[in-house]
Amino acid sequence: LDVGLIHAAWLRQIIPFGLVVVLGLVLTYIMSRRWQTAVEDRRHAQNEAAVARVRAERAEALARVEQARDDLVQLIERSDDFIAIADTDGRLTYVNSAAKRMIGLSPERDPLDLHFSEYIAAESLGYFTGTFMPAVRQHGHAVAEMRLRNLATGEAIDVFRSTFLLLDRKGNPSQLATVARDITHRKRHEEHLNLLMREVNHRAKNLLSVVQAISNQTAAKSPKDFLARFAERLQALAANQDLLVRSDWGGVDIEALVRAQLATFADLIGSRIFVRGPSLRFKSAAAQAVGLALHELATNASKYGALSTESGSVEVCWRLEGDTLAMNWTERGGPPVSAPTQRGFGSTVLNFMAKRSVGGEVHLDYAPSGVMWTLTCPSADALEAANSVEAAERKELERTLGSLDMN
Amino acid sequence: MARVLIVEDDPFIAFDLSERLMQAGFSVIGEASNARQGLALAVDVGCDVAVLDVNLGAETSAAVAQELIRQGIPFVTVSGYSRDQHPSVFNSSPVLEKPIRIERLVAELRRLLAP
Question: Model-level pTM greater than 0.90?
Answer without folding.
Answer: no
